[in-house]
Amino acid sequence: MLDLQYIRDHPEEVKRNVKIRGLTPKEVDIDYFLDVDKRYREMLQLVEEMRARRNELSDLIAREKSSELLKEAATLKEKLKQEEVELNSLENECLEIWRNIPNMAAQNVPAGQDENENIVVRKWGEPTHFDFIARDHLEIGESLGLIDVERAGKASGSRFSYLVGELVILELSLFRFAIDWLVKEGFIPVIPPVMIKKEMEEGLGYGEHGGWEDMYVLEEDGLVLVGTSEHALIARHAGEVLPSGSLPCRYVGISTCFRREAGSYGRDTRGLLRSHQFNKVEMISFVRPEESAKEFKYLLSLEEDLMQALKLPYQIVQMCTGDLGQPASEKYDIEAWLPGQDKYRETHSVSNCTDYQARRLNIKCRSGEQKDFVHILNGTAFSERPLIAILENYQQADGSVKIPEVLVKYTGFSEIGMLKVKSEK
Questions:
Q1: What structural domains and CATH numbers belong to the chain?
Q2: 188-190 and 249-258 strand pairing
Q3: pTM score, whole prediction
Q4: Residue 418 CA, distance from chain mean position
Q5: Distance, CA of 300 to CA of 380 (rounded, Å)
Q6: What are the tens digits of pLDDT across the range 161-186?
Q7: Which residues, in sequence order, are bridge partners of residue 213?
């Protein structure tokens, strides 16, 4: 969450930030929050004074058991009990509103209400075009027996799929390629738990303003299925002070991920685009506050390196204030060109969450005698979405699919579907 003193000192800036993020005063009322905060501090001072008097009375009574002192102590005890209930109520109300206040958007983030006001920053590569009618990834996958949504629907319901045969090898090869690349860059590979405690998920800041609707929450167990390995990897350091020599601390997490995709019914649901379950390789960085802007650019450059190595055309899109998500101060997406859909679609994102999550989960770093909250960043290496881009950009007129050259040493084959295509002939 935001620094409390910053909110007190800069209320108008915080109110403006809430507004340009598309939130109403009814959803996040900064004036009311400051009023509750003021009443809490006044009540806290009163309670502390009463506790001090209670302790003073205790010492006096130990020396002389005066009836007047005993009467005052009994009265004070009852009064203190009532005031502490009110203090706890104000504290809880303050905390609830505080958690709903979004991170401050970086100064260079364009103001806008939703994804329609995001800005294309630059493009790489020319969109792929064919002298035959391009098919989308699901048509290709089903024709080659690589994607089975029909049986997945029978077994699990909508928005699940079986990946089969060579596509499994391709996904594993894609992930191994990313891991090898990032390990050389100094990232530590981690396979984390795919379930975390609900209070840890709360600390990440994704649940407010309807975010819980997008998660699979196991209420009976107090656990949440992660939407990306970032969640478990950040929670790994909750409540810790990271050693001065350990930063930047960079992880590459590999995990299965789970999302309800609650707000996307009726759109972008074909094939693998918005599945409830998918695999992902994610980059996470813990850095000193003064290094986060540089780290943000670095993570984006790594995403571009990986996409360029696959020779997949893409564009970089800067998220506007209304499409950042609560914890992010700044965010970019990479959208790959999909010839089967004749449009760019998101495959990667990178976010700088500054100290927002670290403050909620109490993750600090030591700087001499001082302890500061770290800055936390995350970025996609690869999910299953680049599979979509590979299938569509590398499709051939005979129905087969070529493998990007950099992946051939991992797959052991250079084309998908040749045996099937030949047998059908």
A1: 4-100 (1.10.287.40), 115-424 (3.30.930.10)
A2: parallel
A3: 0.90
A4: 39
A5: 9
A6: 999 999 999 999 999 999 999 999 99
A7: none
Burial of 289 (0-12, 13-18, 19+ CB in 10 A): middle
pLDDT of residue 424: 44
Tokens at residue 322, please?
Answer: 């209304």
**Helices 385-393, 292-310: inter-axial angle, 10-degree rounding:** 40
Residue 325 DSSP code? -
Nearest to 377 by CA among 306, 282, 280: 282
What's the one-letter identity of residue 219?
E
Pairing assessment for the beta strands 370-373 and 217-218 based on DSSP bridges:
unpaired
For residue 107, give both structure tokens.
Answer: 């100064």
> What are the helix (H) ranges across 323-424?
356-361, 385-393, 408-411, 418-424
CA dihedral 270, 274, 276, 279 (to 10 degrees): 110
Please state the separation of Cα 99 from the chain's center in Å. Answer: 16
- The number of residues in the chain equals 425
Reference 342, options 34, 134, 113; nearest CA is 134
Contact by Cβ (8 Å): 271, 141: yes
Q: Which two tokens stand for residue 419?
A: 């045996």
Q: Quick: pLDDT tens for 141-156.
A: 999 999 999 999 999 9
Q: Which of 376, 215, 359, 216 has the alpha carbon at shortest distance from 283?
A: 376
DSSP 395: B
CA trace torsion 333, 266, 194, 234 (10° rounding): 30
User: For residue 191, which of 121, 254, 128 has the smallest C-alpha distance?
Assistant: 254
Q: Which residues, 6 or more positions from 45, have their beta carbon under 8 angstroms from its beta carbon?
A: none
Across the chain, which distance is largest between two alpha carbons, in Å?
106
pLDDT tens by residue, 295-324: 999 999 999 999 999 999 999 999 999 999
Return the SS3 of 135: coil
Across 67-76, 94-103, 305-314, least confident range:
67-76
Whole-number mean pLDDT of the chain? Answer: 91
Q: Exposed, middle or buried by CB within 10 Å (0-12, 13-18, 19+), for 34? A: middle
Place of tokens 């403050």: 359
Q: Which amino acid is at 249?
A: C
Token couple for 327: 């914890």
Where is 401: in which H helix or E strand? strand 401-402
Backbone CA torsion sign across 406, 138, 128, 344? negative
